[in-house]
Amino acid sequence: MDDLALIRRAALSLLARRDHSQQELLQKLKAKGFSPDSIRLIIDDLLKAGLINEQRFIENYLHFRRAKGYGPQRIWQELQARGLADEVIAERLQITDNAWFTNARKVWQKHFKGRLPTDYPTRAKQMRFLQYRGFTREQIEQVFRENGSLSDDD
Question: Looking at domain 3-48, which of 3.90.79.10, 1.10.10.10, 3.40.50.720, 1.20.1600.10 is its CATH number?
């Protein structure tokens, strides 16, 4: 079996498990010892055949990470690390979508059992948790406003 056939088989094996971005596939195939030029040829063929579809990859990744309780900023960074362009990510992510507020509230509710902070150190801890999960400042503040937590005016 020639080199290109081996690369194609390895790439299809990876894609059979889940979608991958071009960069992810390139890195995984390089790690198997294949030449970058040969890998690029196979990736181009797979793109033309529709077997690598970065829009579909983003949709699936977004759905998976959102279900795990991660916010838009964290997901954005993870997609960037996988070699996807900012414009493509922005098109799908829609950070200002009101559904993210609902997600932030659900994550807060699950992690803190709906216990409102009674002092500023506790509030800061809860806010840091949501920030680490990738929610924006506006989304985090909305969670506390809705639940009548300590206000910034206090």
Answer: 1.10.10.10
E strand or H helix that includes residue 73? helix 72-81
If you count DSSP H runs as helices and E runs as strands, how many of each does the chain have, helices first? 9, 0
Structural domain spans, the chain: 3-48, 54-154
Write the pLDDT tens digit of every residue in 54-101.
999 999 999 999 999 999 999 999 999 999 999 999 888 887 778 899
For residues 120 and 51, give the distance between their C-alpha atoms in angstroms, rounded to a whole number.
Answer: 51
Rounded to two decimals, the pTM is 0.85
